[in-house]
Amino acid sequence: MHNFTWNNPTALIFGRDTVKELESPLKASGIKGVLLVYGGKGTFKSGAYEQVTDMLKRAGITFSDVNDVKPNPLIGKVREGVARVKAGGIDAIMPIGGGSAFDTAKAIAAGAKYSGDVWDFYAGKAKIADAMPIYGVLTASASSSEVNCISVISNPETQDKISMSSPALYPKISVIDPSFQFTLPQKQTVYGGVDIIAHVLERVLDGDDESALMDEQSYALIRTMMGVIPALIDDPKDYDARADYAMAGMMAHSGFLSLGRKTRGDFSSHKLGHAISLLYGAAHGASLSVVMPAWSRYLYEENPEPFARLGEGVFGIYEGEDEDRALEAIESLEDFFKEINAPTTLRELGLKEDDIEKLAENACKLLPYGSLKVLDAEDVKEIYKLAY
Predict the structure, then answer these.
(1) Which domain holds residue 333?
(2) 94 falls in which pLDDT band (50, 70, 90)?
(3) C-alpha span between 121 and 114 (Å, rounded)
(4) Smallest Cα–Cα separation from 191: which of 252, 148, 155, 140?
(5) Among candidate residues 330, 281, 336, 288, the one with its CA nearest the CA of residue 309
(6) Does a structural domain hold residue 364?
(7) Are 375 and 342 in a shared domain?
(8) Which residue, among 98, 106, 62, 100, has the nearest Cα to 82 in the 3D structure?
(9) What's the confidence (pLDDT) of residue 374?
């Protein structure tokens, strides 16, 4: 196990009917006005918007909205929010939604304290010195954005989808009421679940063979997700399954599973998936269910050990040589994605073989990346070919 420093300052309020518990800390912090950041109809259908605004009214806190935040959130919506905050009357940012709302809120929180264009943070032209406080209400689990300091934003002008991070971007408090997720569309539950599993796989497949404890934690989380996703397809209002799903989503990309590892994870699959989402509008989770098996097939012969350990820890595969168990594990993962109706090929996302060149060109803009193997341009192209 490698040395590490661990600090996650986000306070988590978890459970049914817990939005009301934000009232006291907001008042104690002297918050007079908040900017609500959310998507669309789902925010109202879940009941989250009504509960949040009722709580704010009781607390005597004013609020205004930046809505219509899209999946794969866009820099234009961030700039709209920054302008709203700079116009005055806002003391805190409050996302109501999933990763897209939280990522947008974090970007607004940073941009509101900066004199230049907020995209500078993503382009590496500026570093975050300060940010507005963030108090969030989660309605869709997937990205762990409710408890981490990462924001991913797309910029159609530059054709980039880039992440940034800063300790200033940790939410002060995040509320997770699993019942808000009862009304999620089935595809969103499936794709969010794939994203959660992918965040864990990025760690256990990073090539680190000195993190047995965290590997075991990770395998248990994946097994849990493989149980609750089908359960929620059958019964979207299964509270215990929703609670396990939400807890797994919170843990997967919070930084906890990276403790003691030599890297924070591989994340090549995420980089490759970002290009698919950016250029072709695919759901983030759908891009990952396509890319992760392809990336794994490309690397397992040269690096069979982490895939073989995955086979043992998640799928109970113990027989055979490392390469055989590794391939069986990859096939089992792909079979699970098919079982929950997640795509496993680029063709299923509507892409043509000719699109591979465009994908590779975009994904190569951020090279080098990867820890199990540091990818080059030829690697990227070959992985997309396997994904086709």
Answers:
(1) 185-387
(2) very high
(3) 10
(4) 140
(5) 330
(6) yes
(7) yes
(8) 106
(9) 97
Which residues share a beta bridge with 175? 13, 137
Residue with tokens 């008042």: 27
What CATH number should be reported for the domain holding residue 107? 3.40.50.1970
| pLDDT, tens digit (0-9, with 9 covering 90-100), for 25-57 | 999 999 999 999 999 999 999 999 999 999 999
**pLDDT value for 57:** 98
> Are both 200 and 288 inside the same structural domain?
yes
Indicate if 216 and 281 belong to the same structural domain: yes
Closest CA to 63 of 31, 34, 30: 34
Q: Is 3 contained in some domain? A: no
Contacts with 87 (C-beta within 8 Å, 6 or more apart), sequence order: none
Residue 187 tokens read as 């595809």
Give the number of domains in the chain: 2
d(C-alpha 281, C-alpha 287), whole Å: 10
At 140-175, the pLDDT tens digits run 999 999 999 999 999 999 999 999 999 999 999 999
pLDDT band at 240 (very low <50, low <70, confident <90, very high): very high
Residue 327 belongs to domain with CATH number: 1.20.1090.10
Total residue count of the chain as it appears in this document: 388
Is 347 a domain residue?
yes
Q: Is 117 a domain residue? A: yes
- Are 290 and 343 in contact, with CB atoms under 8 Å apart? yes
